[in-house]
Automatic annotation (TrEMBL):
PANTHER family: EUKARYOTIC TRANSLATION INITIATION FACTOR 3, EUKARYOTIC TRANSLATION INITIATION FACTOR 3 SUBUNIT L. Signal peptide: none annotated. Residues 303-502 form the PCI domain. One of its GO terms (molecular function) is translation initiation factor activity. It is found in: Cytoplasm. GO terms for biological process: formation of cytoplasmic translation initiation complex. Component of the eukaryotic translation initiation factor 3 (eIF-3) complex. Pfam families: Paf67. This is Eukaryotic translation initiation factor 3 subunit L. Belongs to the eIF-3 subunit L family.
Length: 528
């Protein structure tokens, strides 16, 4: 492991960082964590992972790395697998420090990124090819997959920024490209199968979920844990790999393949993915974004509304979580994506009243602009898409012997161009929609006169509307995203508007929650 910044009294103050120095609190932490891992004490592991590690990092290692794995080896009997887990935490902490705006740490080098990647490969190799007799918290297993994908994404961005690279960094990149990581689901020229797909297949999680539908498995009921003395590690890594694959395919712009990877998980049911809020948000964010890019606006709107309502209700319970800032960021991004969905395909009957109120407070002005399809509208679409989209990547390495420039924005610019082209194609659809909402029947000649176009052009616009408001779902069926439909018979347009379903239960639940909040406030006032 590469040494980094300064440390004093274990964490700051000016002394040079010594990777072999292990404070007493770290010795205790490692010894206890090792014992709990051996005993499969998931509760205690989770407490130390979520609480103890974070507190020690804040207190002792805010500006310096944790001690080297070799230094803590005596306190865990030199256990190979446990040291892989320790290094996973070590590198994740190093990445977090490097990306923190409040930290003075230097950026990670290509060598450090390669070492972190190699540690993940070694850890997953043990899970895939060895016998793992551990039970780890779902939170930690999700963080492994999430960090694995994040570090690949981060490396692709780092590798594509060539303009200010030093000769040493360029040399390291050339060496690293010879050992190019093989993460993506499609096979690269190297021909190796990817790690996440291997975890997915080896765990047989798709078959487990299928058997659960038939009542032959109890995966969701046990939250993925094995209470018969076995291990949950492979099974849960395979499960979270489905979400990781969805994310990586979204970063590549391959939305259809990404949705296929997530298909075994039924998002309409309460699943294990909802237990860890990070996996819940990541799954729905990327699922919704993929559907948006594939013109499945109704499906994207429905899922964004559900997750935004969930965050609205429960985010206060995660304020002390290390992921809280990320939760808030994704929350804001999904409101922006929801605004785009509703501007392209109004489906206000699909969103919750509380979510609708929040959306209007945030983006009402922009949504009004986006209905006009002028320069201001395109600027609003551009702004919201740029803010809310994933950080797209190009997996292939840049040519290092060419004039050095930055390529890290190329994939983003391509996706933005495709999105704005789609918006441009729908320029006239907003106008025709407003007319058709006013009539149950209208002749083509009359509507053409209103829209100031000839009849042939109007027929073309009507066909475009039909095309843009329909998409192919995961089962290959053509589904409509519009809140009304129409057909033409003898030059007369017949409009069929779907009536929104009245959800009386939702109304009563909202009122009950409001009264409970009022009672709680009154009780506080009474005690005061």
């Amino acid at each position: 492991m590469a040494a980094a910044a300064a440390e004093g009294g274990g964490g700051g103050g000016g002394a040079v960082y010594d990777p072999s120095y292990v404070p007493d609190s770290v010795k205790t932490f490692v010894a206890h964590m090792y014992r709990h891992v051996r005993d499969k004490n998931v509760y205690e592991i989770h407490q130390m992972y979520e609480g103890g590690f974070q507190r020690l990092s804040d207190r002792l290692f805010r500006d310096a790395p944790w001690p080297a794995a070799e230094a803590v080896s005596p306190y865990c009997d030199g256990d190979h697998v446990f040291l892989l887990l320790y290094r996973e935490l070590w590198y994740r902490h190093a990445y977090a420090r490097a990306s923190s705006s409040s930290s003075s740490s230097a950026p990670l080098t290509a060598g450090q990124r390669a070492e972190s990647w190699a540690n993940y490969c070694d850890l997953f190799s043990v899970v895939l090819h060895g016998v793992v007799n551990m039970q780890l918290p779902n939170q930690w297993l999700w963080d492994m997959v999430d960090e694995f994908v994040y570090q690949f994404q981060s490396f692709c961005q780092y590798r594509a920024k060539l303009k200010n690279k030093s000769d040493d960094e360029l040399h390291q990149l050339k060496q690293f490209d010879k050992l190019q990581p093989n993460l993506i689901c499609v096979e690269w020229n190297t021909g190796f199968s990817n790690t996440l797909k291997a975890l997915l297949e080896k765990s047989m999680i798709a078959q487990i979920l299928e058997r659960e539908k038939e009542g032959l498995e109890q995966f969701t009921a046990t939250d993925g844990y094995d209470y018969q003395g076995g291990s949950n590690v492979l099974k849960m890594l395979g499960y979270y790999s489905m979400i990781g694959l969805l994310r990586i395919h979204c970063l590549l712009g391959d939305y259809r393949t990404g949705l296929k990877c997530l298909a075994p998980i039924d998002l309409n049911q309460q699943g294990v993915y909802t237990i860890v809020i990070g996996s819940h948000i990541s799954a729905i964010y990327h699922y919704g974004f993929a559907n948006l890019m594939m013109r499945r606006y109704a499906e994207a709107t429905r899922e964004f509304s559900k997750i935004l309502l969930y965050i609205l209700k429960y985010k206060q319970y995660h304020q002390k979580s290390p992921q809280y800032d990320q939760i808030l960021k994704k929350n804001e991004q999904m409101y922006a994506l929801l605004a785009i969905c509703l501007s392209l395909c109004p489906q206000h009957n699909l969103i919750d009243e509380n979510v609708s109120t929040q959306l209007k407070e945030k983006y009402n002005d922009k949504m009004t602009k986006m209905q006009r399809f002028d320069d201001e509208a395109y600027a609003a679409y551009d702004e919201l898409f740029s803010y809310a989209c994933p950080k797209f990547i190009t997996p292939s390495p840049p040519a290092l012997d060419q004039p050095l420039t930055n390529y890290n924005q190329d994939a983003y610019r391509l996706q933005l161009k495709l999105f704005l082209y789609e918006v441009k194609q729908q320029q006239l659809l907003s106008g025709i929609r407003s007319y058709l909402k006013l009539y149950s029947t209208i002749t083509i000649a009359k509507l053409a006169q209103y829209m100031e176009v000839d009849e042939a052009t109007l027929r073309s616009i009507l066909m475009t509307y039909k095309h843009k408001m329909h998409a192919v779902d995961n089962n290959g069926k053509i589904v409509s995203s519009a809140d009304f439909d129409f057909y033409i018979k003898e030059d007369v347009i017949h409009v069929m508007e779907s009536k929104p379903i009245k959800r009386h239960g939702d109304y009563f639940l909202r009122q009950i929650l409001k009264f409970e909040e009022m009672i709680g406030e009154l009780e506080k006032v009474q005690f005061d």
